[in-house]
Design goal:
The structure holds two protein chains of two kinds. Chain A is of the alpha+beta class. Chain A is about 20% helix and about 30% strand. By secondary structure, chain B is α/β, with parallel strands linked by helices. Chain B has a domain of about 100 residues. In chain B, strand 7 and strand 8 form a beta hairpin. The chains are: A alpha+beta, B alpha/beta.
Protein backbone atom coordinates (compact mmCIF):
# COMPACT_ATOMS: atom_id res chain seq x y z
CA UNK A 1 0.00 0.00 0.00
CA UNK A 2 1.34 3.41 -0.82
CA UNK A 3 2.29 5.98 1.78
CA UNK A 4 -0.49 8.24 0.67
CA UNK A 5 -3.11 5.53 1.25
CA UNK A 6 -1.79 4.75 4.73
CA UNK A 7 -1.90 8.41 5.62
CA UNK A 8 -5.49 8.54 4.48
CA UNK A 9 -6.50 5.53 6.60
CA UNK A 10 -4.82 6.99 9.71
CA UNK A 11 -6.54 10.28 9.17
CA UNK A 12 -9.84 8.56 8.67
CA UNK A 13 -9.44 6.59 11.97
CA UNK A 14 -8.62 9.80 13.81
CA UNK A 15 -11.61 11.62 12.41
CA UNK A 16 -13.99 8.69 12.82
CA UNK A 17 -14.01 9.17 16.66
CA UNK A 18 -16.84 11.69 17.00
CA UNK A 19 -17.14 13.83 13.95
CA UNK A 20 -20.42 14.33 12.26
CA UNK A 21 -21.33 12.36 9.11
CA UNK A 22 -20.98 15.43 6.81
CA UNK A 23 -17.37 15.80 7.77
CA UNK A 24 -16.82 12.14 7.04
CA UNK A 25 -17.86 12.70 3.49
CA UNK A 26 -15.33 15.48 3.29
CA UNK A 27 -12.76 13.13 4.65
CA UNK A 28 -13.56 10.53 2.05
CA UNK A 29 -13.22 13.13 -0.68
CA UNK A 30 -9.95 14.26 0.80
CA UNK A 31 -8.82 10.67 0.88
CA UNK A 32 -9.74 10.26 -2.73
CA UNK A 33 -7.63 13.30 -3.53
CA UNK A 34 -4.75 11.77 -1.68
CA UNK A 35 -5.03 8.60 -3.67
CA UNK A 36 -5.18 10.57 -6.88
CA UNK A 37 -2.18 12.77 -6.17
CA UNK A 38 0.69 11.50 -3.99
CA UNK A 39 1.49 14.03 -1.30
CA UNK A 40 5.20 13.73 -1.87
CA UNK A 41 4.86 15.34 -5.30
CA UNK A 42 3.88 18.98 -5.42
CA UNK A 43 0.88 19.71 -7.61
CA UNK A 44 2.02 21.42 -10.78
CA UNK A 45 -0.26 23.65 -12.78
CA UNK A 46 -1.42 21.90 -15.96
CA UNK A 47 0.57 22.97 -19.01
CA UNK A 48 -0.04 21.94 -22.62
CA UNK A 49 3.14 20.77 -24.26
CA UNK A 50 2.94 21.03 -28.04
CA UNK A 51 4.51 18.10 -29.85
CA UNK A 52 6.90 19.05 -32.64
CA UNK A 53 5.05 19.24 -36.00
CA UNK A 54 7.43 16.79 -37.64
CA UNK A 55 6.42 13.99 -35.30
CA UNK A 56 2.70 14.29 -36.13
CA UNK A 57 1.42 11.77 -38.65
CA UNK A 58 0.96 13.47 -42.06
CA UNK A 59 -2.67 14.14 -42.87
CA UNK A 60 -2.90 12.89 -46.42
CA UNK A 61 -5.40 11.47 -48.82
CA UNK A 62 -4.46 8.96 -51.49
CA UNK A 63 -5.22 9.69 -55.13
CA UNK A 64 -5.20 6.25 -56.74
CA UNK A 65 -3.45 5.39 -60.00
CA UNK A 66 -5.53 5.40 -63.18
CA UNK A 67 -7.85 8.16 -61.94
CA UNK A 68 -9.25 9.95 -65.02
CA UNK A 69 -8.11 13.56 -65.34
CA UNK A 70 -9.64 16.25 -67.57
CA UNK A 71 -7.09 18.69 -68.91
CA UNK A 72 -6.73 21.68 -71.19
CA UNK A 73 -3.77 22.54 -73.40
CA UNK A 74 -2.51 26.08 -72.91
CA UNK A 75 -1.27 27.81 -76.02
CA UNK A 76 -1.33 26.56 -79.57
CA UNK A 77 0.95 23.65 -80.39
CA UNK A 78 1.93 23.22 -84.03
CA UNK A 79 4.19 20.90 -86.01
CA UNK A 80 5.53 24.08 -87.61
CA UNK A 81 6.69 25.66 -84.36
CA UNK A 82 7.19 22.75 -81.97
CA UNK A 83 9.77 19.99 -82.16
CA UNK A 84 10.21 16.69 -80.37
CA UNK A 85 11.04 17.26 -76.70
CA UNK A 86 9.33 20.65 -76.40
CA UNK A 87 7.35 21.15 -73.22
CA UNK A 88 3.66 22.07 -73.42
CA UNK A 89 1.71 23.71 -70.63
CA UNK A 90 -1.49 21.98 -69.50
CA UNK A 91 -3.95 22.76 -66.73
CA UNK A 92 -6.54 20.81 -64.83
CA UNK A 93 -9.83 21.65 -66.57
CA UNK A 94 -12.04 20.84 -63.57
CA UNK A 95 -11.45 20.05 -59.89
CA UNK A 96 -10.08 16.56 -59.49
CA UNK A 97 -12.03 14.94 -56.68
CA UNK A 98 -9.89 13.07 -54.14
CA UNK A 99 -12.69 12.50 -51.62
CA UNK A 100 -16.37 13.46 -51.43
CA UNK A 101 -15.55 17.03 -50.44
CA UNK A 102 -11.86 17.52 -51.23
CA UNK A 103 -10.30 18.06 -54.63
CA UNK A 104 -7.25 19.28 -56.46
CA UNK A 105 -8.29 22.74 -57.67
CA UNK A 106 -9.08 23.38 -61.33
CA UNK A 107 -6.33 25.34 -63.03
CA UNK A 108 -3.53 23.35 -61.40
CA UNK A 109 -0.61 23.53 -63.80
CA UNK A 110 0.94 20.54 -65.47
CA UNK A 111 3.45 19.56 -68.12
CA UNK A 112 3.06 17.69 -71.38
CA UNK A 113 5.74 16.92 -73.93
CA UNK A 114 5.87 16.81 -77.71
CA UNK A 115 7.01 13.26 -78.48
CA UNK A 116 6.56 13.38 -82.25
CA UNK A 117 6.54 16.29 -84.63
CA UNK A 118 6.94 16.21 -88.39
CA UNK A 119 6.31 19.04 -90.79
CA UNK A 120 4.31 18.58 -93.95
CA UNK A 121 6.51 17.14 -96.65
CA UNK A 122 6.78 16.61 -100.40
CA UNK A 123 4.00 14.83 -102.20
CA UNK A 124 1.35 16.49 -100.03
CA UNK A 125 2.43 14.74 -96.84
CA UNK A 126 0.60 16.19 -93.86
CA UNK A 127 2.28 17.52 -90.74
CA UNK A 128 2.18 15.28 -87.67
CA UNK A 129 2.14 16.03 -83.97
CA UNK A 130 1.88 13.81 -80.92
CA UNK A 131 1.87 15.05 -77.33
CA UNK A 132 2.04 13.04 -74.10
CA UNK A 133 1.09 14.34 -70.65
CA UNK A 134 3.84 14.01 -68.07
CA UNK A 135 2.66 15.42 -64.72
CA UNK A 136 0.41 17.72 -62.75
CA UNK A 137 2.34 20.01 -60.43
CA UNK A 138 0.32 19.80 -57.24
CA UNK A 139 3.03 21.71 -55.35
CA UNK A 140 6.68 22.54 -56.07
CA UNK A 141 7.67 19.29 -54.34
CA UNK A 142 4.77 17.08 -55.32
CA UNK A 143 4.11 16.08 -58.90
CA UNK A 144 1.34 13.73 -59.94
CA UNK A 145 2.57 11.56 -62.83
CA UNK A 146 0.18 11.29 -65.77
CA UNK A 147 -0.27 8.73 -68.53
CA UNK A 148 -2.70 7.75 -71.30
CA UNK A 149 -2.99 11.27 -72.73
CA UNK A 150 -5.91 11.36 -75.10
CA UNK A 151 -5.99 14.12 -77.63
CA UNK A 152 -6.73 12.92 -81.11
CA UNK A 153 -3.32 12.82 -82.82
CA UNK A 154 -3.15 16.07 -84.69
CA UNK A 155 -2.54 15.53 -88.36
CA UNK A 156 -2.45 18.42 -90.76
CA UNK A 157 -4.36 18.68 -93.99
CA UNK A 158 -3.16 15.98 -96.32
CA UNK A 159 -2.70 16.97 -99.94
CA UNK A 160 -1.60 13.50 -101.00
CA UNK A 161 -4.75 12.84 -103.04
CA UNK A 162 -4.46 16.24 -104.73
CA UNK A 163 -0.79 15.65 -105.47
CA UNK A 164 -1.54 12.22 -106.90
CA UNK A 165 -4.39 13.60 -109.02
CA UNK A 166 -2.17 16.42 -110.30
CA UNK A 167 0.53 13.94 -111.18
CA UNK A 168 -1.86 11.76 -113.18
CA UNK A 169 -3.65 14.65 -114.88
CA UNK A 170 -0.69 16.75 -115.99
CA UNK A 171 1.97 14.09 -116.49
CA UNK A 172 5.64 14.86 -115.86
CA UNK A 173 5.22 18.58 -115.14
CA UNK A 174 2.32 17.82 -112.84
CA UNK A 175 4.38 15.11 -111.17
CA UNK A 176 7.16 17.56 -110.32
CA UNK A 177 4.62 20.09 -109.05
CA UNK A 178 3.01 17.35 -106.98
CA UNK A 179 6.34 16.43 -105.42
CA UNK A 180 6.86 20.04 -104.38
CA UNK A 181 3.33 20.35 -102.98
CA UNK A 182 3.36 20.01 -99.19
CA UNK A 183 0.62 19.17 -96.72
CA UNK A 184 -0.69 21.41 -94.00
CA UNK A 185 0.91 21.55 -90.56
CA UNK A 186 -0.70 19.78 -87.63
CA UNK A 187 -1.91 22.01 -84.83
CA UNK A 188 -3.53 21.66 -81.46
CA UNK A 189 -5.53 24.83 -80.81
CA UNK A 190 -5.20 26.79 -77.58
CA UNK A 191 -7.51 25.54 -74.80
CA UNK A 192 -8.00 22.16 -76.47
CA UNK A 193 -9.55 19.63 -74.17
CA UNK A 194 -7.63 16.48 -73.35
CA UNK A 195 -7.88 13.51 -71.05
CA UNK A 196 -5.30 11.54 -69.11
CA UNK A 197 -5.00 9.18 -66.17
CA UNK A 198 -2.85 9.32 -63.07
CA UNK A 199 0.12 7.00 -63.48
CA UNK A 200 0.71 6.10 -59.81
CA UNK A 201 -0.81 6.32 -56.34
CA UNK A 202 -0.04 9.73 -54.82
CA UNK A 203 -0.58 10.82 -51.19
CA UNK A 204 -1.77 14.42 -51.12
CA UNK A 205 -1.65 16.68 -48.03
CA UNK A 206 -5.23 17.42 -47.01
CA UNK A 207 -4.32 20.97 -46.01
CA UNK A 208 -3.54 21.81 -49.64
CA UNK A 209 -6.72 20.36 -51.10
CA UNK A 210 -9.69 22.47 -52.04
CA UNK A 211 -13.03 21.97 -50.34
CA UNK A 212 -15.84 21.39 -52.81
CA UNK A 213 -19.49 20.44 -52.64
CA UNK A 214 -20.30 16.80 -52.18
CA UNK A 215 -21.37 15.12 -55.41
CA UNK A 216 -25.06 15.18 -56.08
CA UNK A 217 -26.89 11.89 -56.02
CA UNK A 218 -26.56 10.13 -59.34
CA UNK A 219 -29.79 8.60 -60.52
CA UNK A 220 -29.16 5.23 -62.15
CA UNK A 221 -30.27 5.20 -65.75
CA UNK A 222 -32.47 2.19 -65.14
CA UNK A 223 -34.55 4.14 -62.61
CA UNK A 224 -35.29 6.98 -65.01
CA UNK A 225 -38.76 6.46 -66.41
CA UNK A 226 -38.72 5.97 -70.15
CA UNK A 227 -41.38 7.89 -71.98
CA UNK A 228 -42.88 5.75 -74.65
CA UNK A 229 -44.25 7.38 -77.73
CA UNK A 230 -47.75 6.52 -78.47
CA UNK A 231 -48.17 4.84 -81.77
CA UNK A 232 -50.69 6.50 -83.93
CA UNK B 1 -45.03 -32.34 -111.16
CA UNK B 2 -44.32 -31.56 -107.52
CA UNK B 3 -40.61 -31.74 -108.22
CA UNK B 4 -40.94 -29.27 -111.09
CA UNK B 5 -42.97 -26.93 -108.89
CA UNK B 6 -40.38 -27.17 -106.15
CA UNK B 7 -37.65 -26.35 -108.66
CA UNK B 8 -39.55 -23.29 -109.90
CA UNK B 9 -40.15 -22.12 -106.34
CA UNK B 10 -36.52 -22.63 -105.45
CA UNK B 11 -35.39 -20.71 -108.53
CA UNK B 12 -37.79 -17.88 -107.71
CA UNK B 13 -36.54 -17.83 -104.15
CA UNK B 14 -32.93 -17.68 -105.25
CA UNK B 15 -33.62 -14.87 -107.68
CA UNK B 16 -35.64 -12.84 -105.20
CA UNK B 17 -33.94 -9.60 -104.10
CA UNK B 18 -34.09 -10.49 -100.41
CA UNK B 19 -31.98 -13.59 -100.92
CA UNK B 20 -29.65 -11.72 -103.21
CA UNK B 21 -29.13 -9.05 -100.55
CA UNK B 22 -28.74 -11.63 -97.82
CA UNK B 23 -26.09 -13.44 -99.78
CA UNK B 24 -24.28 -10.23 -100.67
CA UNK B 25 -24.28 -8.51 -97.32
CA UNK B 26 -21.36 -9.93 -95.43
CA UNK B 27 -21.96 -8.00 -92.23
CA UNK B 28 -18.85 -5.97 -91.40
CA UNK B 29 -17.30 -7.62 -88.39
CA UNK B 30 -15.49 -5.29 -86.03
CA UNK B 31 -11.81 -6.14 -85.66
CA UNK B 32 -11.10 -7.57 -82.25
CA UNK B 33 -7.53 -6.82 -81.24
CA UNK B 34 -5.69 -8.98 -78.72
CA UNK B 35 -5.44 -7.67 -75.17
CA UNK B 36 -1.96 -6.46 -74.20
CA UNK B 37 0.02 -8.84 -72.02
CA UNK B 38 0.00 -7.90 -68.31
CA UNK B 39 2.30 -4.95 -67.66
CA UNK B 40 3.01 -4.49 -71.36
CA UNK B 41 1.57 -2.40 -74.12
CA UNK B 42 1.09 -3.11 -77.79
CA UNK B 43 1.37 -1.23 -81.06
CA UNK B 44 -0.87 -1.80 -84.06
CA UNK B 45 0.62 -0.90 -87.44
CA UNK B 46 -2.02 -0.67 -90.11
CA UNK B 47 -2.07 0.31 -93.71
CA UNK B 48 -5.32 1.34 -95.29
CA UNK B 49 -5.44 0.81 -99.05
CA UNK B 50 -4.36 3.48 -101.49
CA UNK B 51 -1.43 4.05 -103.71
CA UNK B 52 1.64 1.83 -103.63
CA UNK B 53 -0.33 -1.33 -103.03
CA UNK B 54 2.58 -3.50 -104.17
CA UNK B 55 5.01 -1.88 -101.72
CA UNK B 56 5.16 -3.29 -98.22
CA UNK B 57 5.82 -1.10 -95.25
CA UNK B 58 8.64 -2.72 -93.27
CA UNK B 59 8.75 -1.31 -89.76
CA UNK B 60 11.96 -1.26 -87.74
CA UNK B 61 12.98 -0.16 -84.27
CA UNK B 62 16.69 0.58 -83.73
CA UNK B 63 17.34 -1.02 -87.10
CA UNK B 64 15.70 -4.30 -86.09
CA UNK B 65 12.67 -5.39 -88.08
CA UNK B 66 9.59 -5.59 -85.86
CA UNK B 67 6.84 -6.01 -88.43
CA UNK B 68 5.63 -5.51 -91.96
CA UNK B 69 2.29 -4.42 -93.36
CA UNK B 70 1.00 -4.73 -96.89
CA UNK B 71 -1.96 -2.86 -98.38
CA UNK B 72 -5.12 -3.24 -96.30
CA UNK B 73 -3.33 -5.15 -93.62
CA UNK B 74 -2.46 -4.67 -89.94
CA UNK B 75 0.09 -6.17 -87.60
CA UNK B 76 0.26 -6.10 -83.79
CA UNK B 77 3.44 -6.15 -81.72
CA UNK B 78 4.02 -6.27 -77.96
CA UNK B 79 6.02 -3.36 -76.57
CA UNK B 80 7.44 -2.30 -73.24
CA UNK B 81 5.79 0.82 -71.79
CA UNK B 82 7.66 3.96 -72.76
CA UNK B 83 8.59 5.97 -75.81
CA UNK B 84 9.29 4.00 -78.99
CA UNK B 85 10.58 5.27 -82.33
CA UNK B 86 9.77 3.22 -85.40
CA UNK B 87 11.12 3.74 -88.91
CA UNK B 88 10.20 2.62 -92.41
CA UNK B 89 12.43 3.04 -95.44
CA UNK B 90 12.35 2.94 -99.21
CA UNK B 91 14.11 5.73 -101.11
CA UNK B 92 13.58 7.87 -98.02
CA UNK B 93 13.24 7.01 -94.35
CA UNK B 94 10.31 8.12 -92.24
CA UNK B 95 10.06 7.85 -88.48
CA UNK B 96 7.32 8.09 -85.90
CA UNK B 97 7.58 8.21 -82.12
CA UNK B 98 4.75 6.91 -79.99
CA UNK B 99 4.12 6.62 -76.28
CA UNK B 100 3.30 3.06 -75.27
CA UNK B 101 1.40 2.67 -72.00
CA UNK B 102 1.01 -0.55 -70.05
CA UNK B 103 -2.21 -2.43 -70.78
CA UNK B 104 -3.00 -0.09 -73.67
CA UNK B 105 -2.72 -0.11 -77.44
CA UNK B 106 -1.03 2.55 -79.57
CA UNK B 107 -1.77 2.89 -83.28
CA UNK B 108 0.55 3.76 -86.16
CA UNK B 109 -0.67 4.25 -89.72
CA UNK B 110 1.57 3.51 -92.66
CA UNK B 111 0.81 5.12 -95.99
CA UNK B 112 2.82 5.09 -99.16
CA UNK B 113 3.24 8.58 -100.57
CA UNK B 114 4.71 9.76 -103.86
CA UNK B 115 8.44 9.45 -104.33
CA UNK B 116 10.90 10.19 -107.14
CA UNK B 117 11.42 6.57 -108.18
CA UNK B 118 9.33 4.50 -105.79
CA UNK B 119 6.65 5.25 -103.20
CA UNK B 120 7.82 6.53 -99.85
CA UNK B 121 6.50 5.05 -96.60
CA UNK B 122 4.92 7.54 -94.27
CA UNK B 123 4.46 6.43 -90.67
CA UNK B 124 2.13 8.64 -88.68
CA UNK B 125 0.53 8.50 -85.25
CA UNK B 126 -3.09 7.38 -85.35
CA UNK B 127 -5.95 6.78 -82.98
CA UNK B 128 -8.24 3.87 -82.32
CA UNK B 129 -10.87 5.75 -84.30
CA UNK B 130 -8.59 5.93 -87.34
CA UNK B 131 -8.08 2.19 -87.08
CA UNK B 132 -11.80 1.59 -86.73
CA UNK B 133 -12.37 3.56 -89.94
CA UNK B 134 -10.04 1.25 -91.83
CA UNK B 135 -12.68 -1.43 -92.06
CA UNK B 136 -11.05 -3.37 -94.89
CA UNK B 137 -7.80 -4.16 -93.11
CA UNK B 138 -7.00 -7.77 -92.33
CA UNK B 139 -4.26 -9.17 -90.10
CA UNK B 140 -0.89 -10.09 -91.55
CA UNK B 141 -0.01 -13.78 -91.22
CA UNK B 142 1.92 -13.86 -87.95
CA UNK B 143 3.94 -16.97 -88.91
CA UNK B 144 4.98 -15.42 -92.20
CA UNK B 145 6.07 -12.18 -90.53
CA UNK B 146 7.95 -14.10 -87.81
CA UNK B 147 9.83 -15.98 -90.55
CA UNK B 148 10.60 -12.71 -92.35
CA UNK B 149 11.85 -11.14 -89.11
CA UNK B 150 14.09 -14.16 -88.45
CA UNK B 151 15.40 -13.98 -92.02
CA UNK B 152 16.09 -10.27 -91.65
CA UNK B 153 17.98 -10.88 -88.41
CA UNK B 154 20.07 -13.62 -90.04
CA UNK B 155 20.83 -11.29 -92.92
CA UNK B 156 21.89 -8.52 -90.53
CA UNK B 157 24.00 -10.95 -88.50
CA UNK B 158 25.68 -12.23 -91.66
CA UNK B 159 26.31 -8.65 -92.76
CA UNK B 160 27.83 -7.81 -89.38
CA UNK B 161 29.99 -10.95 -89.47
CA UNK B 162 31.15 -10.08 -93.00
CA UNK B 163 32.07 -6.58 -91.88
CA UNK B 164 34.00 -8.01 -88.92
CA UNK B 165 35.96 -10.44 -91.09
CA UNK B 166 36.75 -7.65 -93.56
CA UNK B 167 38.23 -5.50 -90.79
CA UNK B 168 40.34 -8.37 -89.40
Amino acid sequence: MSGAALRFLNLFDYQAGGIAGGHRVNMILYGAMLFAQPLAEPVQPATIVEAPVATLPAQTLRLPALTPVRLRVIGEVSSKTHVKGDKVEIILAEPLRVSATLAIPAGTLGVAEVIHSAQGGMGGKAGELLVAARSLDFSPDLHIPLRSFRLAPANGKSNEALAMGLSIAVGVTGGIAAMVMTGGSARIPDRSEAFAKTAADVDLPIAQLQTIDAPSVIVPISSVPIQMKEEK
Amino acid sequence: MINKLSLVCLTALLMSPSVAVAGKSDAKVAIVLPTPKPGKGQVVFFRPGGMGGAIKCTVRENGKMVGRVGANRYYVIDAEPGVHTFTAKSEATDAVTVQVESDETAFVKCKITMGMMVGRPNLSPASELDFAKATKVKPMEADKIAAEIAKDQDKKAAGAAGADSATE
